[in-house]
């Protein structure tokens, strides 16, 4: 009986010498976060918690943009703007910057959902020969998070 491949193995690449684009984007995201955290620790910034939060979102957006470059998906390059908004948020607390940051975060969440939904569909077709969409609970949870972020963005500005 052949061993089945899990969704995580499919995303990261299951062959020793063949890695999926998701793997390189994931590594790029963590590398960006580690280097940025090191620079933040060396900088001696006073408001390090809000800068770190913006750095985490920026690393996430950088990983999404890298995935868009690797897969030649132009719509994911929108996350370059979300990355710029998160970097601007690290250095400014202006209400316009915070609103742009929240809009960038919403764009990043929608992009990540579209990536995972597409990859899950590929996984289902390759491994199980039947396309099954993401569970409805994932869609509802992401929708609730986006509504809460929109409300926070409206209240913050």
Q: Report the radius of gyration as a whole number of Å.
A: 18 Å
The stretches of 5 or more residues where confidence is low (pLDDT under 50) are: none
The structure class reads: mainly alpha
Largest sheet: none
Outline type: globular
Count of all domains: 1
3D structure, described in words:
There is one protein chain. It contains six helices and no strands. With 157 residues, the protein is an all-alpha fold. It has one domain.
Q: What's a quick, concise take on this entry?
A:
With 157 residues, the protein is mostly helical.
Helix-strand layout with pairing:
Elements: H1 7-12, H2 21-43, H3 48-71, H4 79-91, H5 95-128, H6 136-156
List keywords for this structure.
globular, single chain, 157 residues
């Amino acid at each position: 009986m052949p061993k089945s491949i899990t969704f995580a193995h499919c995303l990261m690449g299951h062959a020793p010498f063949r890695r999926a684009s998701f793997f390189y984007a994931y590594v790029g995201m963590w590398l960006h976060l580690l280097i940025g955290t090191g620079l933040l620790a060396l900088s001696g910034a006073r408001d390090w918690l809000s800068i770190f939060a913006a750095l985490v979102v920026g690393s996430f957006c950088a990983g999404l943009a890298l995935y868009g470059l690797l897969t030649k998906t132009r719509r994911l390059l929108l996350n370059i703007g979300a990355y710029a908004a998160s970097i601007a948020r690290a250095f400014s607390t202006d209400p316009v910057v915070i609103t742009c940051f929240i809009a960038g975060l919403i764009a990043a969440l929608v992009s990540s959902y579209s990536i995972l939904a597409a990859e899950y569909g590929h996984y289902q077709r390759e491994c199980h020969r039947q396309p099954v969409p993401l569970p409805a609970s994932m869609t509802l949870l992401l929708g609730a998070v986006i509504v809460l972020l929109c409300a926070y963005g409206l209240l913050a500005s």
